From TrEMBL:
Domain NAD-dependent epimerase/dehydratase: 3-261
Molecular function terms, GO-annotated: UDP-glucose 4-epimerase activity
Reactions that this protein is recorded to catalyse: UDP-alpha-D-glucose = UDP-alpha-D-galactose
Family to which the UniProt record says this protein belongs: Belongs to the NAD(P)-dependent epimerase/dehydratase family.
Native source organism of the sequence: Actinomarinicola tropica
Protein name, as recorded: UDP-glucose 4-epimerase
SUPFAM superfamilies in the record: NAD(P)-binding Rossmann-fold domains
Amino acid sequence: MRILVTGGAGYIGSHTAVLLAEAGHDVVIVDNLVNSRSEAVRRVRELTGADVAFHQVDLLDEEALDEVVASTGPEAVIHFAGLKAVGESVADPHRYYSVNVGGALALTKAMAAHDCRTIVFSSSATVYGDHPTLPLREGAPTAATNPYGWTKLMIEQILHDLHQADDTWRVASLRYFNPVGAHPSGRIGEDPQGIPNNLVPYIAQVAVGRREKLQVFGDDYDTPDGTGVRDYIHVLDLAQAHIAALDRLEEVGGHHVWNVGTGKGHSVLDVVAAFERASGRPIPYEVVARRPGDIATCYADPTRANTELGWTADRTLDAMCIDTWRWQSSNPEGYPPD
Ligand code: NAD
Ligand code: WQD
Protein backbone atom coordinates (compact mmCIF):
# COMPACT_ATOMS: atom_id res chain seq x y z
CA MET A 1 0.00 0.00 0.00
CA ARG A 2 1.09 3.59 -0.49
CA ILE A 3 0.97 5.20 2.94
CA LEU A 4 1.36 8.88 3.76
CA VAL A 5 3.04 9.34 7.14
CA THR A 6 2.61 12.83 8.55
CA GLY A 7 5.22 13.63 11.20
CA GLY A 8 7.31 10.76 9.83
CA ALA A 9 10.61 12.49 10.68
CA GLY A 10 9.61 12.51 14.35
CA TYR A 11 10.20 9.97 17.07
CA ILE A 12 7.28 7.58 16.66
CA GLY A 13 6.76 8.34 12.97
CA SER A 14 10.32 7.40 11.99
CA HIS A 15 10.10 4.04 13.78
CA THR A 16 6.75 3.34 12.15
CA ALA A 17 8.14 4.31 8.74
CA VAL A 18 10.87 1.68 9.18
CA LEU A 19 8.36 -1.07 9.93
CA LEU A 20 6.06 0.03 7.10
CA ALA A 21 8.92 0.00 4.58
CA GLU A 22 10.12 -3.37 5.88
CA ALA A 23 6.59 -4.72 5.41
CA GLY A 24 6.78 -3.69 1.75
CA HIS A 25 4.66 -0.55 1.91
CA ASP A 26 5.47 2.49 -0.15
CA VAL A 27 6.10 5.26 2.40
CA VAL A 28 5.68 8.99 1.79
CA ILE A 29 6.66 11.26 4.68
CA VAL A 30 5.32 14.77 5.20
CA ASP A 31 6.92 16.80 7.98
CA ASN A 32 7.80 20.47 8.46
CA LEU A 33 10.75 19.52 10.74
CA VAL A 34 9.58 21.86 13.52
CA ASN A 35 10.56 19.19 16.06
CA SER A 36 12.76 16.84 14.04
CA ARG A 37 15.66 16.56 11.62
CA SER A 38 15.79 15.37 8.04
CA GLU A 39 18.66 13.09 9.14
CA ALA A 40 15.99 10.86 10.69
CA VAL A 41 14.48 10.31 7.24
CA ARG A 42 17.92 9.56 5.78
CA ARG A 43 18.42 6.94 8.48
CA VAL A 44 15.02 5.38 7.81
CA ARG A 45 16.18 4.94 4.22
CA GLU A 46 19.55 3.58 5.39
CA LEU A 47 17.92 1.03 7.72
CA THR A 48 15.37 -0.21 5.20
CA GLY A 49 17.09 0.31 1.86
CA ALA A 50 13.72 1.66 0.74
CA ASP A 51 13.16 4.72 -1.36
CA VAL A 52 11.14 6.57 1.28
CA ALA A 53 9.86 9.86 -0.14
CA PHE A 54 10.08 13.03 1.96
CA HIS A 55 8.20 16.31 1.52
CA GLN A 56 9.07 19.16 3.85
CA VAL A 57 5.59 20.61 4.09
CA ASP A 58 3.59 22.25 6.86
CA LEU A 59 0.13 20.74 7.26
CA LEU A 60 -1.24 24.24 7.59
CA ASP A 61 -0.02 25.03 4.07
CA GLU A 62 -3.16 23.65 2.48
CA GLU A 63 -2.03 24.18 -1.07
CA ALA A 64 1.28 22.38 -0.64
CA LEU A 65 -0.38 19.58 1.32
CA ASP A 66 -3.04 19.11 -1.33
CA GLU A 67 -0.33 18.97 -3.98
CA VAL A 68 1.51 16.18 -2.09
CA VAL A 69 -1.67 14.15 -1.62
CA ALA A 70 -2.65 14.67 -5.25
CA SER A 71 0.75 13.73 -6.63
CA THR A 72 1.44 10.72 -4.40
CA GLY A 73 -2.07 9.23 -4.22
CA PRO A 74 -1.90 7.50 -0.82
CA GLU A 75 -4.35 4.71 0.03
CA ALA A 76 -4.01 5.40 3.76
CA VAL A 77 -2.59 8.01 6.10
CA ILE A 78 -0.93 7.62 9.48
CA HIS A 79 -1.20 10.98 11.17
CA PHE A 80 1.55 11.68 13.73
CA ALA A 81 2.28 15.33 12.93
CA GLY A 82 1.50 17.76 15.69
CA LEU A 83 2.80 19.50 18.78
CA LYS A 84 3.02 17.46 21.96
CA ALA A 85 4.42 19.44 24.91
CA VAL A 86 1.74 19.71 27.58
CA GLY A 87 3.25 22.73 29.38
CA GLU A 88 3.78 24.61 26.12
CA SER A 89 0.13 23.98 25.22
CA VAL A 90 -0.96 25.67 28.45
CA ALA A 91 1.28 28.66 27.72
CA ASP A 92 0.32 28.97 24.05
CA PRO A 93 -3.07 27.30 23.50
CA HIS A 94 -3.72 29.12 20.24
CA ARG A 95 -0.70 27.53 18.61
CA TYR A 96 -1.73 24.07 19.79
CA TYR A 97 -5.32 24.34 18.57
CA SER A 98 -4.13 25.87 15.34
CA VAL A 99 -1.45 23.27 14.52
CA ASN A 100 -3.08 20.14 15.92
CA VAL A 101 -6.76 20.73 15.14
CA GLY A 102 -6.11 22.92 12.08
CA GLY A 103 -3.58 20.37 10.79
CA ALA A 104 -6.05 17.50 11.14
CA LEU A 105 -8.75 19.49 9.34
CA ALA A 106 -6.42 20.42 6.49
CA LEU A 107 -5.22 16.84 6.21
CA THR A 108 -8.66 15.21 6.12
CA LYS A 109 -9.82 17.83 3.62
CA ALA A 110 -6.94 17.01 1.27
CA MET A 111 -7.54 13.28 1.79
CA ALA A 112 -11.23 13.51 0.91
CA ALA A 113 -10.44 15.65 -2.12
CA HIS A 114 -8.26 12.84 -3.47
CA ASP A 115 -10.41 9.92 -2.42
CA CYS A 116 -8.34 8.65 0.49
CA ARG A 117 -10.46 7.97 3.57
CA THR A 118 -8.38 5.64 5.71
CA ILE A 119 -6.58 7.23 8.66
CA VAL A 120 -4.76 6.06 11.78
CA PHE A 121 -4.45 8.87 14.30
CA SER A 122 -1.99 9.36 17.20
CA SER A 123 -4.20 9.95 20.18
CA SER A 124 -3.06 9.73 23.77
CA ALA A 125 -3.92 8.30 27.17
CA THR A 126 -4.07 11.92 28.27
CA VAL A 127 -7.70 11.90 27.02
CA TYR A 128 -8.65 9.92 30.14
CA GLY A 129 -8.00 13.00 32.31
CA ASP A 130 -6.72 13.08 35.84
CA HIS A 131 -9.01 10.68 37.70
CA PRO A 132 -8.70 7.48 35.75
CA THR A 133 -10.36 4.24 36.80
CA LEU A 134 -7.60 1.67 36.46
CA PRO A 135 -6.82 -0.16 34.34
CA LEU A 136 -8.00 2.20 31.64
CA ARG A 137 -10.48 0.81 29.14
CA GLU A 138 -11.54 2.61 25.96
CA GLY A 139 -15.06 3.12 27.33
CA ALA A 140 -13.81 5.12 30.32
CA PRO A 141 -15.00 8.72 30.48
CA THR A 142 -12.73 11.17 28.68
CA ALA A 143 -11.66 14.55 30.00
CA ALA A 144 -8.85 16.81 28.99
CA THR A 145 -6.88 18.77 31.56
CA ASN A 146 -4.84 20.95 29.21
CA PRO A 147 -5.06 22.30 25.64
CA TYR A 148 -2.85 19.50 24.27
CA GLY A 149 -5.29 16.91 25.63
CA TRP A 150 -8.24 18.86 24.26
CA THR A 151 -6.71 18.81 20.79
CA LYS A 152 -6.52 15.00 20.95
CA LEU A 153 -10.15 14.75 22.04
CA MET A 154 -11.27 17.25 19.40
CA ILE A 155 -9.47 15.40 16.63
CA GLU A 156 -10.95 12.07 17.75
CA GLN A 157 -14.36 13.77 17.59
CA ILE A 158 -13.72 15.22 14.14
CA LEU A 159 -12.71 11.79 12.83
CA HIS A 160 -15.75 10.21 14.46
CA ASP A 161 -18.03 12.76 12.82
CA LEU A 162 -16.42 12.26 9.40
CA HIS A 163 -17.15 8.56 9.68
CA GLN A 164 -20.72 9.28 10.80
CA ALA A 165 -21.27 11.50 7.78
CA ASP A 166 -19.66 9.10 5.31
CA ASP A 167 -18.95 5.54 6.38
CA THR A 168 -16.35 5.06 3.68
CA TRP A 169 -14.05 6.81 6.17
CA ARG A 170 -12.05 4.15 8.03
CA VAL A 171 -10.65 5.54 11.24
CA ALA A 172 -8.45 4.29 14.06
CA SER A 173 -7.66 6.51 17.03
CA LEU A 174 -4.77 4.89 18.88
CA ARG A 175 -4.45 6.06 22.47
CA TYR A 176 -0.77 5.71 23.25
CA PHE A 177 0.43 5.30 26.81
CA ASN A 178 4.11 6.20 27.42
CA PRO A 179 6.24 5.44 24.34
CA VAL A 180 9.95 4.96 25.06
CA GLY A 181 12.88 3.03 23.61
CA ALA A 182 14.50 3.17 20.21
CA HIS A 183 15.29 1.04 17.18
CA PRO A 184 17.73 -1.71 18.29
CA SER A 185 20.22 -0.57 15.65
CA GLY A 186 20.76 2.63 17.66
CA ARG A 187 20.39 4.62 14.42
CA ILE A 188 17.04 6.27 15.20
CA GLY A 189 15.55 7.30 18.53
CA GLU A 190 13.96 10.11 20.47
CA ASP A 191 15.79 13.42 20.08
CA PRO A 192 14.08 16.05 22.22
CA GLN A 193 15.04 19.65 21.52
CA GLY A 194 16.04 21.52 24.69
CA ILE A 195 15.43 20.11 28.17
CA PRO A 196 13.50 16.84 27.93
CA ASN A 197 10.00 16.94 29.44
CA ASN A 198 9.71 13.19 29.69
CA LEU A 199 11.31 10.76 32.07
CA VAL A 200 13.24 8.34 29.87
CA PRO A 201 14.91 10.92 27.59
CA TYR A 202 15.91 12.86 30.71
CA ILE A 203 17.44 9.79 32.35
CA ALA A 204 19.24 8.94 29.09
CA GLN A 205 20.82 12.40 29.04
CA VAL A 206 21.92 12.01 32.67
CA ALA A 207 23.49 8.64 31.85
CA VAL A 208 25.40 10.07 28.89
CA GLY A 209 26.64 13.03 30.94
CA ARG A 210 24.58 15.82 29.37
CA ARG A 211 22.69 16.47 32.64
CA GLU A 212 23.85 16.22 36.20
CA LYS A 213 20.96 14.41 37.86
CA LEU A 214 17.35 13.45 37.52
CA GLN A 215 14.70 15.26 39.50
CA VAL A 216 12.11 12.77 40.70
CA PHE A 217 8.81 14.60 40.85
CA GLY A 218 7.44 13.42 44.20
CA ASP A 219 7.85 10.25 46.23
CA ASP A 220 4.69 10.58 48.28
CA TYR A 221 2.15 9.22 45.81
CA ASP A 222 -0.07 6.32 46.77
CA THR A 223 2.06 3.83 44.81
CA PRO A 224 4.34 0.97 45.98
CA ASP A 225 7.47 3.16 46.24
CA GLY A 226 5.75 6.56 46.30
CA THR A 227 6.82 7.61 42.79
CA GLY A 228 4.55 7.92 39.74
CA VAL A 229 3.59 4.74 37.89
CA ARG A 230 3.13 4.64 34.11
CA ASP A 231 2.59 2.15 31.32
CA TYR A 232 5.82 2.42 29.30
CA ILE A 233 5.63 0.85 25.85
CA HIS A 234 8.51 0.17 23.47
CA VAL A 235 8.24 2.44 20.42
CA LEU A 236 8.56 -0.55 18.08
CA ASP A 237 5.65 -2.35 19.75
CA LEU A 238 3.74 0.90 19.35
CA ALA A 239 4.80 1.20 15.69
CA GLN A 240 3.64 -2.38 15.08
CA ALA A 241 0.19 -1.47 16.42
CA HIS A 242 -0.22 1.01 13.55
CA ILE A 243 0.34 -1.70 10.99
CA ALA A 244 -2.09 -4.00 12.79
CA ALA A 245 -4.65 -1.16 12.90
CA LEU A 246 -4.27 -0.50 9.16
CA ASP A 247 -4.74 -4.20 8.43
CA ARG A 248 -7.86 -4.28 10.60
CA LEU A 249 -9.30 -1.16 8.95
CA GLU A 250 -8.79 -2.78 5.56
CA GLU A 251 -10.79 -5.80 6.73
CA VAL A 252 -13.65 -4.24 8.63
CA GLY A 253 -13.72 -0.48 8.03
CA GLY A 254 -15.46 1.55 10.73
CA HIS A 255 -14.24 3.89 13.43
CA HIS A 256 -12.26 2.37 16.29
CA VAL A 257 -10.50 3.49 19.42
CA TRP A 258 -7.71 1.26 20.69
CA ASN A 259 -5.53 1.64 23.77
CA VAL A 260 -1.90 0.99 22.94
CA GLY A 261 -0.11 0.01 26.12
CA THR A 262 1.35 -3.03 27.82
CA GLY A 263 -1.09 -3.16 30.74
CA LYS A 264 1.83 -3.04 33.19
CA GLY A 265 2.87 -0.15 35.39
CA HIS A 266 6.41 0.82 36.37
CA SER A 267 7.45 3.49 38.86
CA VAL A 268 10.00 6.23 38.28
CA LEU A 269 12.45 4.35 40.49
CA ASP A 270 11.84 1.11 38.54
CA VAL A 271 12.84 2.99 35.38
CA VAL A 272 15.92 4.45 37.07
CA ALA A 273 17.01 0.96 38.17
CA ALA A 274 16.37 -0.54 34.71
CA PHE A 275 18.38 2.24 33.08
CA GLU A 276 21.27 1.71 35.48
CA ARG A 277 21.29 -1.99 34.52
CA ALA A 278 21.10 -1.14 30.81
CA SER A 279 23.85 1.48 30.84
CA GLY A 280 26.06 0.16 33.63
CA ARG A 281 26.13 3.73 34.94
CA PRO A 282 24.66 5.23 38.09
CA ILE A 283 21.74 7.64 37.60
CA PRO A 284 22.02 10.25 40.34
CA TYR A 285 18.67 11.67 41.37
CA GLU A 286 17.03 13.91 43.94
CA VAL A 287 13.42 13.88 45.00
CA VAL A 288 11.69 17.22 44.47
CA ALA A 289 8.11 18.45 44.65
CA ARG A 290 5.35 16.86 42.58
CA ARG A 291 5.00 18.26 39.06
CA PRO A 292 1.68 20.13 38.75
CA GLY A 293 -0.89 18.15 36.77
CA ASP A 294 0.77 14.74 37.34
CA ILE A 295 -1.28 11.78 38.51
CA ALA A 296 -0.11 8.87 40.67
CA THR A 297 -0.80 5.96 38.37
CA CYS A 298 -1.83 5.34 34.77
CA TYR A 299 -1.87 2.07 32.85
CA ALA A 300 -3.90 0.55 30.08
CA ASP A 301 -6.20 -2.36 29.73
CA PRO A 302 -5.00 -3.30 26.23
CA THR A 303 -7.45 -6.22 25.85
CA ARG A 304 -9.40 -4.65 23.01
CA ALA A 305 -6.29 -4.11 20.87
CA ASN A 306 -4.96 -7.55 21.84
CA THR A 307 -8.18 -9.22 20.76
CA GLU A 308 -9.26 -7.16 17.76
CA LEU A 309 -5.83 -6.46 16.30
CA GLY A 310 -4.09 -9.69 17.29
CA TRP A 311 -1.36 -7.44 18.64
CA THR A 312 0.46 -7.36 21.97
CA ALA A 313 3.33 -5.32 23.33
CA ASP A 314 6.01 -7.87 24.24
CA ARG A 315 9.15 -5.86 24.83
CA THR A 316 10.18 -5.46 28.48
CA LEU A 317 11.21 -2.36 30.40
CA ASP A 318 14.80 -3.67 30.31
CA ALA A 319 14.64 -3.91 26.50
CA MET A 320 13.24 -0.35 26.34
CA CYS A 321 16.17 0.95 28.40
CA ILE A 322 18.81 -1.11 26.55
CA ASP A 323 17.60 0.23 23.19
CA THR A 324 17.34 3.80 24.50
CA TRP A 325 20.89 3.54 25.82
CA ARG A 326 22.23 2.18 22.51
CA TRP A 327 20.67 5.17 20.72
CA GLN A 328 21.76 7.77 23.32
CA SER A 329 25.31 6.46 23.75
CA SER A 330 25.95 6.30 20.01
CA ASN A 331 24.25 9.69 19.38
CA PRO A 332 25.01 11.67 22.56
CA GLU A 333 23.88 14.96 21.02
CA GLY A 334 21.00 13.42 19.04
CA TYR A 335 20.81 13.84 15.27
CA PRO A 336 23.23 16.24 13.60
CA PRO A 337 21.52 19.51 12.68
CA ASP A 338 20.21 19.85 9.12
P1 NAD B 1 7.58 14.27 17.47
O1 NAD B 1 7.53 15.70 17.82
O2 NAD B 1 8.87 13.56 17.50
O3 NAD B 1 6.90 14.04 16.03
C1 NAD B 1 5.91 14.88 15.51
C2 NAD B 1 6.37 15.36 14.16
O4 NAD B 1 5.39 16.22 13.60
C3 NAD B 1 7.69 16.14 14.21
O5 NAD B 1 8.62 15.56 13.32
C4 NAD B 1 7.29 17.54 13.78
O6 NAD B 1 8.32 18.19 13.06
C5 NAD B 1 6.05 17.26 12.94
N1 NAD B 1 5.13 18.40 12.85
C6 NAD B 1 4.64 19.17 13.85
N2 NAD B 1 3.82 20.12 13.38
C7 NAD B 1 3.75 19.94 12.03
C8 NAD B 1 3.07 20.60 10.98
N3 NAD B 1 2.29 21.67 11.21
N4 NAD B 1 3.23 20.15 9.73
C9 NAD B 1 4.02 19.09 9.46
N5 NAD B 1 4.71 18.42 10.42
C10 NAD B 1 4.57 18.84 11.69
O7 NAD B 1 6.52 13.52 18.43
P2 NAD B 1 6.23 11.97 18.66
O8 NAD B 1 6.60 11.64 20.06
O9 NAD B 1 6.77 11.17 17.55
O10 NAD B 1 4.64 12.00 18.61
C11 NAD B 1 3.93 11.70 17.42
C12 NAD B 1 2.45 11.85 17.71
O11 NAD B 1 2.08 10.99 18.78
C13 NAD B 1 2.03 13.26 18.13
O12 NAD B 1 0.78 13.55 17.53
C14 NAD B 1 1.88 13.15 19.63
O13 NAD B 1 0.95 14.06 20.15
C15 NAD B 1 1.39 11.72 19.77
N6 NAD B 1 1.69 11.13 21.09
C16 NAD B 1 2.97 11.12 21.54
C17 NAD B 1 3.25 10.60 22.79
C18 NAD B 1 4.64 10.63 23.35
O14 NAD B 1 4.80 10.50 24.56
N7 NAD B 1 5.69 10.72 22.52
C19 NAD B 1 2.22 10.07 23.57
C20 NAD B 1 0.92 10.08 23.06
C21 NAD B 1 0.66 10.62 21.81
C1 WQD C 1 6.51 9.91 33.66
C2 WQD C 1 6.73 9.87 35.15
C3 WQD C 1 6.64 12.02 36.21
C4 WQD C 1 10.24 13.60 34.25
C5 WQD C 1 3.42 12.77 29.26
C6 WQD C 1 2.24 13.57 28.78
C7 WQD C 1 1.26 12.67 28.10
C8 WQD C 1 1.93 11.82 27.02
C9 WQD C 1 3.19 11.18 27.48
C10 WQD C 1 1.56 12.77 24.86
C11 WQD C 1 5.79 10.78 35.95
C12 WQD C 1 8.03 11.42 36.34
C13 WQD C 1 9.19 12.80 34.66
C14 WQD C 1 11.25 13.95 35.19
C15 WQD C 1 10.11 12.64 36.86
N1 WQD C 1 2.30 12.60 25.88
N2 WQD C 1 9.13 12.32 35.94
N3 WQD C 1 11.14 13.45 36.48
O1 WQD C 1 3.63 12.68 32.43
O2 WQD C 1 3.06 10.23 32.07
O3 WQD C 1 2.97 11.77 30.17
O4 WQD C 1 4.03 12.13 28.14
O5 WQD C 1 0.43 12.46 24.66
O6 WQD C 1 0.25 13.48 27.58
O7 WQD C 1 1.62 14.20 29.89
O8 WQD C 1 5.18 11.15 31.10
O9 WQD C 1 7.63 10.86 30.96
O10 WQD C 1 6.69 13.14 31.57
O11 WQD C 1 6.53 11.28 33.22
O12 WQD C 1 10.05 12.22 38.03
O13 WQD C 1 12.19 14.69 34.89
O14 WQD C 1 8.05 10.34 35.44
O15 WQD C 1 6.28 12.70 37.39
O16 WQD C 1 5.48 10.13 37.15
P1 WQD C 1 3.67 11.51 31.56
P2 WQD C 1 6.58 11.67 31.66
